[in-house]
Amino acid sequence: MRPRHVLAGVIGLGLLLGGFWHPAALAAGRVVIYNADTAEFGEAFVQAFNKQQPNLSVEIISAGVGQLFTRVKAEAARPQGDIMLAASHESFLQMGDLFSSYTSKSDADFANNMKDAQRRFYGFSMPLQVLIINTSLVPAGQAPKAWKDLGDPKWKEKIIMANPALSGSAYAQLAQMLQLHGWPLIQQVVKNATITSSSKLAYQGVGTGEFTIGLTGEENVFKLKEEGRPVDAVHPSEGTGLRYDAVGIIKGGPNLENAKLLMDFLTSKEAHTIAAGKPFFRRSVRKDIAPPPGLKPTGEIKFFDYDVERAAKEKATNLKKFDEIMAAK
Questions:
Q1: Which residues pair with 249 in a beta bridge?
Q2: Residue 309 contacts by C-beta under 8 Å, 6 or more apart in sequence?
Q3: Closest Cα to residue 34, out of 65, 73, 2, 4?
């Protein structure tokens, strides 16, 4: 693991200005982030954090949610990481005993349903799951409108989705389809789809025209649109789950006090403003951050009663059955 930022600075006092976070005092040493999003995503927060804490060396390990939680579980006797960033709510619920309770300085800015009751994690953004379509390959009027449409044989070999065992967002897609339509739909979707090991490929493949339809978080669609790709987002007509990814402190991590400082920053208005801006377009869970320009207002999106605790509880069983269906394809 290689430090990403090691900057010298003058020790001083921080101030709270314009609603943005500033530390009470400068710290030194290191802190390690396990980042479930892109390296560029993690780097944006490290750069902003290091402006406030220039003497802290921040290391970023970026990988998929499944890989990172496997790592945290394997390291439980001697943790090597301090913070888990942008991992799915379902994964945090499933392995909540791997995280320490800590009440952020921004606790009051989070609704009760956007933070863990024991404060083992806080919501970060709302990665609402949608269908991404390539508008050059299928006219909007002929595109699928619902989760159930993905089982139509006419879409065979035209769909791409990530393996839910390796991607938190892909597991959320699986869990939502299961809660709405059960295993018969999943069997049909698997017959139609290419299953990739990377959630990034699940939307990039649609952007490049290799696939007609993908399953992804809505912010990824708007990233591609900013690049000029012929894509659009379809919010499924049955509704999508109102869910969030989260950030938490790894229990027993090597740099607890620095992890608390970083946690205070990652739950701050400043960090969430970064997430909502270009190029990330994240829908923040904080009360005081508007949806990014270009995203449909939250109030205009249809949601269904997605049971995230059920999804977490059934994850191991669901993944086993999905693997069996995929193996029999």
A1: 83, 100
A2: 93
A3: 65
What distance in Å separates the CA atoms of residue 98 and residue 96, rounded to the nearest whole number?
A: 5
Give me the DSSP letters along 87-150: EEHHHHHHTGGGEE----TTGGGS-GGGB-TT-S-EE-B---EEEEEETTTS-GGGS--SGGGG
Domains identified in the chain and CATH numbers: 29-126+243-276 (3.40.190.10), 129-241+296-327 (3.40.190.10)
Q: What is the value of pTM for the model shown?
A: 0.79
Asked whether the beta carbons of 7 and 21 are under 8 A apart, the reply is no
- CA pair distance 178, 313, nearest whole angstrom: 14
How do 303-304 and 122-123 pair as beta strands? unpaired
> What confidence tens digit (pLDDT) does each residue in 107-144 have?
999 999 999 999 999 999 998 999 999 999 998 789 99
Task: Say how far residue 225 (Cα) sits from the centre of its chain.
Answer: 19
- Identify the bridge partners of residue 189 per DSSP, sorted by sequence position: none
At 275, the amino acid letter reads: A
Show the tokens assigned to 242. Answer: 């109102």
Backbone angles phi, psi at 151, to 5 degrees: -85, -5
Q: Could you tell me whether strands 213-217 and 159-162 are parallel, antiparallel, or unpaired per DSSP bridges?
A: parallel
d(CA 155, CA 133): 12
pLDDT single digits (tens) 79-104: 999 999 999 999 999 999 999 999 99
